[in-house]
Design goal:
Length: 244
């Protein structure tokens, strides 16, 4: 009997993996590399790309990486690379996607089951007003797909309106990099606006934890995380939703 149960569990896992291999997620990263007027460089925060990427790719989920301009992705946080990140930065398939990102304007939302916005301060400058970000996000959500983001990534959602005319985040629980975290990094005055405040302005029910600690919230098919520490769990929740 124990053998039969183990076989059943194994077959269930195989079936789940096969089902997930038909799922496709669009990872969106920034093309912006200048950190306000600091003279410093920024970009996509690397672990916010690698951690959910690893979670999903390990289960057979297909992933495309895209940005407003396409091409090579500017990166931030490389000094925080852990073993998963270091391994992916040596992976030819991952590097090819990262260095040859698709252009958002070329993409069809019907090709994707979910969209995920990685953070990094660059997102604050080139994602909130991008019409293709709004087009892809609204279409994916309106058609039953998953919308997800972490850290500064939720800035992509602040101007997204659904076909009912309401902001995507309205009356939904949301998380993002907080005003306190921005102040702790002494970058408040370098941002075009504060993300926490903007999400609240758009009707989001903002939730948060202590600075730089993991916090992820799911509201219907919207998954958002607070900071880099939350990226892996965002990936896990995307996976859980895809498996439904």
């Amino acid at each position: 009997m124990k053998i039969l149960i183990n076989i059943f569990i194994l077959l269930s896992l195989i079936s789940c993996t096969k089902g997930l291999s038909s799922k496709k997620v669009l990872f969106v990263v920034t093309s912006h590399s200048e950190l306000g007027t600091t003279g410093k460089k920024t970009g996509a925060y690397i672990t916010e790309v690698t951690h959910p990427y690893h979670v999903l790719i390990e289960k057979g989920v297909q992933i495309d990486i895209a940005s407003p301009e396409g091409g090579k992705t500017p990166l931030d946080g490389l000094d925080q690379a852990d073993e998963i990140t270091k391994a992916l930065l040596k992976n030819d398939t991952f590097l090819n996607k990262l260095n040859n990102a698709k252009k958002l304007s070329d993409l069809n939302p019907t090709d994707y089951d979910a969209i995920y916005f990685a953070g990094g301060h660059g997102t604050m400058f080139d994602l909130p007003d991008n019409p293709d970000v709004q087009r892809l996000t609204a279409s994916i959500y309106d058609n039953g797909g998953i919308v997800s983001a972490v850290c500064h990534g939720p800035v992509a959602l602040v101007n997204v309106k659904l076909k009912n005319g309401k902001y995507l985040v309205e009356n939904k629980n949301v998380a993002s990099f907080t005003n306190e975290e921005e102040e702790a990094m002494k970058l408040t005055n370098q941002m075009p606006f504060l993300l926490e405040s903007k999400l609240i302005e758009r009707g989001g029910k903002f939730t948060k934890s202590e600075n730089f600690t993991e916090h992820v919230v799911t509201s219907d098919r919207l998954i958002t995380g607070q900071n880099p520490a939350s990226a892996k769990e965002v990936g896990e929740r995307i996976l859980k939703q895809l498996a439904k």
